[in-house]
Amino acid sequence: MYDSYQGIYELAKPYLQTRYNDLHTEICYSFACRLLENEPGDQEIVLPAVICHDLGWIKLPEDLQKKAFGPKFDPDLRRIHEVEGVKLARLVLEQVGYDPNKIKEIAVIIDGHDSRTFALSDNDRIVKDADKLWRFTATGIAIDMERFGLEPSNYIPWIKEQIDSWFFTQTGKQLARNELAERA
Question: From CA 119, how far away is CA 42, in angstroms rounded?
Fold first, then answer.
């Protein structure tokens, strides 16, 4: 699945053992590959960024994690996972001998992948869209509804309304709509 990025994924795995981030990362990676088929972007930036984008959650105590994301979140807590994620991503990518210039761009993408409301580049657009597409999958919907005590009758219409404001690419918007159609 992670082809030439398997080494990065193996080193990242220990940091993904919280918040279902192992599942989240695999699903986001799959979406990133699909987005790269139709949108401009560099897989050597996008795919490692997707693998590493949520590593920083491991640094936030689990009792605070739920307060850092979701419908009612604390932006300062959410920011911690981005800042810590940059440090861990650099560590992982340096361990595999990744190109230092590519590490710099990956770090910039991770540092703001949730908090920044605009995309800095085509690569950033794809990472942001791949990350959000998780919310539209059967797995993502089930986990988020359980986490936040939501009912499908409220949650599904709400995420459907977010498509045009959340996604940066046309492909991302279409994939989100297709996922919701499969849930119907």
Answer: 15
Is residue 15 assigned to a domain? yes
Over residues 38-92, the pLDDT tens digits come to 999 999 999 999 999 999 999 988 888 877 676 677 778 889 999 999 999 999 9
3-state SS of the chain? CCHHHHHHHHHHHHHHCCCCHHHHHHHHHHHHHHHHHHCCCCHHHHHHHHHHCCHHHHHCCHHHHHHHCCCCCCHHHHHHHHHHHHHHHHHHHHHCCCCHHHHHHHHHHHCCCCCCCCCCCHHHHHHHHHHHHHHHCHHHHHHHHHHHCCCHHHHHHHHHHHHHHHCCCHHHHHHHHHHHHHHC
Q: In this predicted structure, what is the pLDDT of residue 65?
A: 81
Domain count of the fold of the chain: 1
CATH number at residue 18: 1.10.3210.10
Interior angle at CA 95, CA 127 and CA 2, nearest 5: 45
User: Does 184 map to a domain?
Assistant: no
**Section 110-132 average pLDDT:** 97
Domain that holds residue 150: 3-179
Higher pLDDT, 131 or 183: 131
